[in-house]
Each structure stands twice: as C-alpha cells, then as structure tokens.
Amino acid sequence: MGLTGLEIFKQLPKTNCKDCGHPTCLAFAMAMAAGKASLDQCPHVSEAAKEALGAASAPPMALVKIGTGEKELQLGNETVLFRHDKRFENPTGIAITVSDAASEEEIAARVAQINKLSFERVGQIHHVNLVAVVNDSGSADKFATAAKVAAANTQYPLILVTDDAAAMEKALEAVGNQKPLLCGASAGNYEAMTALAKKYDAPLVVRGADLNELAELVEKVVAQGHKKLILDSGAREVHRVLADQTQLRRQALKRFRPFGYPTITFVTGEDPVQAVLDAAVYICKYAGIVVLPSADPADILPLITLRLNIYTDPQKPIAVEPKVYEIGTPGPNAPVFVTTNFSLTYFCVAGDVEASRVPSYIIAVDTDGLSVLTAWAAGKLTSEKIADMLKNTGIADKVSHRKVIIPGGVAVLSGKLAELSGWEVLVGPRESSAIPSFLKQRWSA
Amino acid sequence: MAVTIAKERWTNRVAEVVLGVEPKVVKIGGEGTLPFLHFEGEMPNRPAVALEVWDMEPTTWPEILTKHYAGVLGDPAAWAKKCVEYGADLVCLTLASAHPDNKNSSPEECAQVAKTVAEAVDVPLIVLGCGVEEKDAQVLEKVAEALSGRNCLLGLATQENYRTITAACMVYGHNVIASTPLDINLEKQLNILITEMNMAPNRIVIDPSVAALGYGIEYAYSIIERTRIGALTGDKMMAMPVICILGPEVWKQKEAKSTTEEAPDWGDQERRAILWETVSAVALAQAGGSLFVLRHPESLRQFKAHIEKLMQPNVY
Ligand code: B12
Ligand code: SF4
User: Is A136 exposed, middle or buried (0-12, 13-18, 19+ CB in 10 A)?
Assistant: First the structure.
C-alpha cells in the first residue's frame, strides 16, 4: 500500500531547493507519506523516480473532472473512510434531472428552475452542480435537442443519461465539446460508449448489475484505453446503495484498482420526501454524485447544507477576521452588535442584521473561531475582550451613542462589560433571527 | 470477476438498553457493526423515535408545529396520547416549567405531571429536566420516585449533577442519560463516573449534545461516529447507545421558523422544516444514533419509513 517517508525520500533529488513549498526534501517526503503532498509538486523529480514511486504513490481514488470552464466539477481524490480521520475532499456533486420527453419550453423552464438552486451560507454561495438530461423519450433526436436546450440555458455541466449509444452520439454532436458526463456504459453497450467517451475525451459512468460485474466492466473499459470513469454499482434501493458505496470506498482505499474512481448514485421511488432522505444518506456515505428528480428549494437547501457540513474540514473551524464589520452604510446612530468570529455565528448575525434593514456595525470578537456559547464556556468570549474591542477598534468615534448589543446567550457578561467599558449594555435575543423584531421594539440611539 | 467483500472484524458491540415495561418495551443499541451494514454484523434493533411533550405550553414553536397538537398543548397527558397516535415509539416529556425563568415548578409538581403522563400512555417514557443542573437533580429525584418501576429514561445527567440523578435511577429502576458537551473524552469520563457508582453499563444512554443541520451537526456526527467505532473496537465505556435530542435544536433555527413568505427562495416552510428535522436525523443515524427525539409528526413518520428501508438486509 502506502510507502514510508524514507522510501520516498530515497527517490528525491535531496537538494532541499524548497520549490515544492516544503523546507527540505525529507519534509516533503514525510508530507507525501501522510497523503498531504503529491509527487507532481516537486518539479525536479527524475523520470526514474516517477516510475518507481508513480504507481505506489498514485492516489487511491482518481480525480475526475466533468464539464469545462467556471462550473467544471471535480470529483474523487478521497483518502479516508471517516471525516474525522482527515477530511472528505471533493463535495458530492448534486445533479437534478430534466426529461427529454418534455417540450423545449418546458425543458428551458425546468433548467431555469435548477439554475435558481443557489443559496448563500457562511458567506459563500452553495449551489447544485449538474443537470442530468434523461432520455425518457427513447428518441435520439429528442435527446439531442434536450441536451442542446439544456446546455444553452445553464452553465452547469451536463450528465447525458441514456443506454442507447446512437442517442448518445447524437447528443454529443450537439454538446460534446462541453465534456459532459456520459451515463453510460453497461454490459450491453460498453464498447460503443467507451469509443464515444474517448472520441470526446469525456468522463464515462460504468454501470454493473452488481459489484462483480462492475469490476469486470471497468477493466474492459480501461483496456480500451479510457480512464475517466465514474462508478455505478447498479443498486437503487437505499439499503443496497449504502452497502455498495461502503464497499466501493473501502476497496478504493485498499487500492483495488477497478474501484479507484468516484461514484454516482440515483434516488428513485415515489415519495419525494423519502427521495431527499435517501440522497442525504448518499451525501454522508461517499457518493461522488447524487442524481435527484426534485428542483424544489425546500428539498435542495437541506441537502446542500448537509454537504457543506459533512465536507467541512474537521481540523479547522472556519473563522472570519476579528474586526468591526459594516452592514449597509451605518451612520452615527447605527446599532453596534457584538458576536464571535466563528464564520457560522458571524454570518447568522450578519444575515439577520441585514434582514432588519437597519445599517449597523458588528464587532466580531476573536474567539479562535468558536460559537457564542462554546467561546463563553471556553473563556474566549469575555467582558474584558469585548471592552477591549470597544476601546481599540475606533468604534467609539464612528457612533455618537454608547450602547452595545450582546447575544442573549451571554447575558451574564452585561454587568461587568458595562463596568469595564462605560457603555450601556443591551442584552439581545438568544437567536439572531429575532434581531429584526428586537431592533423594532428596543432600538433607539 | 469476483470482488472480495471487505468486512471489518469488530470485537465488541454496543450494549442493549431496554426501556419501558411489557408489553411495550423498546430496545435500543446492541449493534455489532457500523449503522445499517448488515453484511458485516448484527443490528438487532432499529433506531427508536420519540416525540416531545412539554409540561407547559411552548411559546416559541412555530404554527406549522403547534397546529398538529392543537387542543392538547396545555394538557401533557392528552398531548402524550396524541404522540402515540402519531406513531411515536416513546414519549419524551420535557419539564420546562421547572425552569426558574418559566414557572419554577416544584419537584413535587413535576413528579405529579410525569405520573399523569406515564399513566396516559403505555409506551416508554423519557423525562428531561429543564436544563438547570441543580434544579434537575431535585426534580428528577422526585420524578424517579413517582415513576418507580416503569423503567424510564431520565436525564440529563451532567458532570455537575450525575450523582443524585444516577442514584435515583438506581433506586427506582430507571435508566440514565449521560450528557456532555461534544467532547469524546468528557463523554467517556462521565460514563466511567456513572458506572463507578455501580450503575450497569446497559442502563446508560449517551447524549453527546447534538446540533441541527447547518448549526454544527458535523461535530455531533463525528463524535457519534467515533463513539461507535470506539464501542466496536472494544471500549466498554463508549459502548452505550446514543440519544439525539434533535427537536429543540432544529426548531430554533431560521430554516424551520421562517415562513414561506419571509423566505420565498427556500420553498414551502412546512416541507422545508420537516426536511430540516429529518435530514438531521438521517445524518446522525448514519453516524450511529440509536434513539431520536423529534417534534413534527410528519418528521416522525418519514424518518421511521426511512429507517424501515435501511433495516432490510444487505448481505452479499
Ligand atoms: C459545535 C459545538 C462545539 C464545537 C465548537 C464549534 C465552534 N467552532 O464553535 C466543539 C466540539 C469544539 C465544542 C467545544 C466545547 N463546547 Co461546545 N458546543 C457546540 C454546539 C453543539 C453548537 C454550537 C454552534 O456552533 N452553534 C451555532 C452558532 C451559530 O450558534 P451561536 O454562536 O450561539 O450563535 C447563535 C446565537 O448565539 C445568536 N447570536 C450570536 N451572536 C449574536 C449577537 C447578537 C447581538 C445577538 C442578539 C445574537 C447572537 O444567534 C446565533 C444563531 O442563532 C453547542 C450546543 C448547541 N447545540 O448549541 C455546544 C456548547 C455551546 N458547547 C458547550 C461547551 C461547554 C463546550 C466546551 C467547553 C466543552 C469541552 N469540551 O470542554 C468546549 C469548549 C471549546 C474549547 N475548549 O476550545 C456548551 C456551553 C454551555 C454553556 N451554556 O455554557 C454547549 C451549549 C453544549 C451544552 N449544552 O452543554 N463545542
Ligand atoms: S522541490 Fe523537490 S528537490 Fe526541491 S526540496 Fe522539494 S522535494 Fe526536494
């Protein structure tokens, strides 16, 4: 399996030139052994060394790209079974289906709906990633038209879903230059599908009836010379998909080569809520892509949020810079809020202050990226720290009043804070979502 | 090409905890594998699901929630019956009125309510205090006595108050929830302290503290996952089933509370809120949760239907 740092070190130039970003060749070798660096980061490594280290140092799961340009999607490169072991690397791509049985207008409208599945969370935009055009009509022409209409109306890469190689070829004539994901190859059609994937240099889903057949097919496709693959074990019921996804990830990490690729999962079934719940399982459990039929924001927002949470790096809380933030263009009478510099906390508060439409200042206290109560319990959100920020950030020159609003969860800080800072302390609501009504009822400068 | 199925050989299993009395006992835990990997080991009990009942009318629950309990919110016994009607495996009674900021009800008053609720339903009962550690110790002691012999699950026992609560559970034949703030070492430490009082490990349920989707659930997810792996690899002080008290966490969030008009880009409020609760539960079930406390009856129904699908055998 993996090589030791020393084994890797033996193959390096040993010049300690630092071009790889590590202080020494040995440090680089150790980082590589830990899976935190890859050989291509050293520009000086010899061909012989590449050969020697290549196979053994290749990542357990290939990196596969779908689409082109800004919305290109990267999948794979995963190295662990559990997020606490290190982290999950490339978030599950969320794909929404479009049926080619619909009219062109309906397809355009559906794609427009999919484009709107974009949400702001912790200061970033999170959105779905793919549009899956499904050949329900059985007609190659309709499929090609649908693909064309979809591509014309979205920036997201496409998944072309058909078992019919002739239909796939037609669709590729229309959108093949955008490197869509071909979905895909199965026992009956893999030769033709692989040839198409090669011709357009596009990624290809390989579907087996079960894990055994999948392994066999992957080897055949690879033997034909195509390696940009996504795996589909054929399972569709949630209990089987969970088992197969677990196997595929375990086998990849054991370096069973046919399974060293990202996966795709499909939710099916009548009940739309159950479909979302199945998708939630696949996001937790290793799916490279999950394909769903719903474009309802009520269904997609929870899944996008789950994906964000599961793929957060467990080693570093996301923090914002501790400083005074301006929401809108606050004047001398603007309210002054105090919160922590944990991203989630800050953006909750910022979003709710924004919703109140009252231009304001928010002081994000440096709590090492901890939430309000966690920081308070850890002694990192104190009256001293807040008083210090009130004194040293220049906020006192920006506002003419001396009133500061603190989170309801840390009401206990108010007495001491008032004493230390000389400011009047208003205890805000416990949840920032109540800030708009709080301001209406309680705020006057 | 035959793929050799990769199976872990676990050396230990999660303790099985039995709640309630015949004929309506609920068993949780007992897993000898990671969640729902039936190809690898046994999962003798499906995760169980409770609905919440309060001993006072909640003021902060949104209308999409209260409308399902219309007419019973002021009557804990009737409310509990409603939960059972909706299909709850257990009822989780929260003694919110004991909080000094609420009615500051006395331990005796709380015990009386708990008794009334216990008599109204035949499913097992979880009884939670108001979250003020000192008060909870007094309240749960009286509750334990009033519910003597009913084999309930009482909590939350924390570092501060576990002695009184554990002792009361031992004397009156109940099980205890050992609660710590998202820290695997503190969690294990509290289990050790409680078992050192001679409480049997299969009468303890772990509350790791959970957060809702979007509000820190990833911390709970990883702690529960690590707890399960600890249990399976032989750490007896982590081998207790895990309770996920999600209702209070989910229903304070914007995604559950904002109306369709307030957040039109987020879709229909009730659909979104139900999914916020069920997706939170689904994720923590994948991490290893064995007992769930939810609020919305449709969340309960959907989550149970989901669990039923996952309990189907997936042996190769
Ligand atoms: C995730 C979490 C952690 C994570 C940290 C995550 C992080 N980056 O902060 C970890 C696992 C590291 C952790 C550790 C600890 N935690 Co912790 N943790 C939580 C948990 C589950 C969620 C916190 C969270 O992220 N909430 C979401 C954010 C957005 O909430 P928030 O910051 O409070 O902001 C909201 C409101 O306060 C308000 N708000 C915020 N700012 C402002 C400003 C104004 C003006 C207003 C009006 C409102 C407002 O609006 C926001 C949205 O509603 C809570 C329990 C829970 N379910 O809430 C416990 C909790 C906060 N932790 C707790 C404790 C005790 C700890 C530890 C001390 C325990 C320990 N292990 O030793 C440590 C301390 C850490 C350390 N020593 O470094 C306790 C605090 C108890 C108390 N009341 O004092 C809690 C409440 C758990 C409990 N029930 O016991 N924790
Ligand atoms: S770039 Fe290569 S040669 Fe230079 S220090 Fe890094 S590993 Fe050594």
Answer: middle
